[in-house]
Design brief:
about 190 residues, Rossmann fold, three-stranded mixed β-sheet, 12 strands, binds glutamine
Length: about 190
């Protein structure tokens, strides 16, 4: 198994380390040529969604990745990665991959709560540590979307088909159960 990790900006190294802790091979996607090697799954890390979105297009990575995602490639987006996968971003007509039927609100936690840590349940796994950094949350989800985590009545993790998203950063903890969950989907 090989997992591609988008490595244009943001926290991709931590995802690679998480995968390593699970003995899963990964490679960094930085340019079009990196897509020559087939992948079994894709991780879109946190960072700044506008920056990553622009780089994806400038580097001509957007269309080939979108095609693979649409064709069912298991894809996991954390934070900015979730924004890139959402069908709708609140307050703008800009969208990126539009692969999961959710509306997300960027920087949704006010200034004081810009970054915080908590523990909350993840469906089927139990309580897990969650690190939020200028995080989005899910404002609306279609009925087909499975909700996996809620914090203070806000939806913060979800899955639909081949797409998994979290508002928080499981890669910034020492708990690799969410990555293991993703790897199980890839299998
Ligand atoms: N605030 C960022 C955005 O809107 C997301 C933050 C993150 O990925 N940690 O893209």
């Amino acid at each position: 198994m090989r997992i591609g990790v988008l490595a244009l900006q943001g926290g991709f190294i931590e995802h690679i380390q998480m995968l390593r802790s699970l003995q899963v091979n990964s490679f960094e996607i930085r340019k079009k040529e990196d897509l020559r090697t087939a992948m079994d799954g894709l991780i879109l890390p946190g960072g700044e969604s506008t920056v990553i979105g622009k780089l994806l297009k400038d580097l001509k990575l957007f269309d080939p990745l979108k095609e693979q995602i649409q064709n069912g490639l298991p894809t996991f987006g954390t934070c900015a990665g979730m924004i890139l996968l959402a069908r709708k971003i609140t307050g703008t007509d800009t969208t990126y991959f539009g692969a999961i039927d959710i509306e997300v609100k960027r920087n949704a936690y006010g200034r004081q709560l810009g970054s915080f840590f908590t523990e909350a349940p993840f469906k089927g796994i139990g309580s897990i540590p969650m690190t939020f950094i200028r995080a989005p949350y899910i404002e609306r989800a279609a009925p087909e979307v499975e909700i996996l985590s809620e914090v203070d009545n806000r939806l913060v993790a979800a899955r639909q088909g081949n797409i998994l998203v979290t508002s928080y950063h499981p890669e910034l903890t020492t708990d690799n159960r969410i990555h293991r969950y993703f790897i199980e989907q890839v299998k």
